Amino acid sequence: MNGDSEMAVGLVDSVVGTHNLPESVRALSSLSDIDYADHFTLSTDADATPEQWARAMFGDVPSVAEQLIWRGLLGLRLARGRSPDTVAGWQIGERGEDWIRLEAASWFLTGNLLVQTADGRVSLGTFLRYDRRLGHSVWPPLSAVHRRLVPGLLRDAAARIAQLTERAAFADAKAELFGGLPRRMRGDRSGEEFLRHGERIGPYLTRLRGLAFEQGSRVRCRQSAAILRERRTSHARR
Question: What's the whole-model pTM score?
Fold first, then answer.
């Protein structure tokens, strides 16, 4: 294919061209024949599952710009609305312990988006098969724009995930704070005894409500993470 090359874009490493792809990466595509391929890798300390990375990159539903490119220019048939089985309208085709593959097609091309995580890195691979002659004309000029955008896409996703991690840590700190204040307010008395005979009951109840909210938030986050891990494992075993 045209334009096979290897390059480095800032802190993002990239490979363009089917002949430069590691076989282990190529094997994760659902396409037997690949006409276009690229693979971008960002080194990052942000920690998330492949699906979480994919949603941080593309969102649950496609943005206006994504719809313009994917639906308008490429004619991809994307699902509408939010679904646990789709990411930004792309169908979740298959997944493993450290990767997830999104799939979409139009009448003239078929595409895969592959997100991988391992050893402090996250990667995004794009694979296309031209099913009609039009694909050879439409994608090459768009691919140049695509390759310029992907490094920023990876960095923005890493920033979002890092922000969520900070929020989780902040919620832990707030829960600890809300837990400590009521204990200091009531001293050696039990909660029931303080409610019966203590002073400043209003502030005490306010802090209890705050504690309950933060604890509930932590429980919901942990439950969501556990469900995602179970779902990822069950799909990997299929």
Answer: 0.70
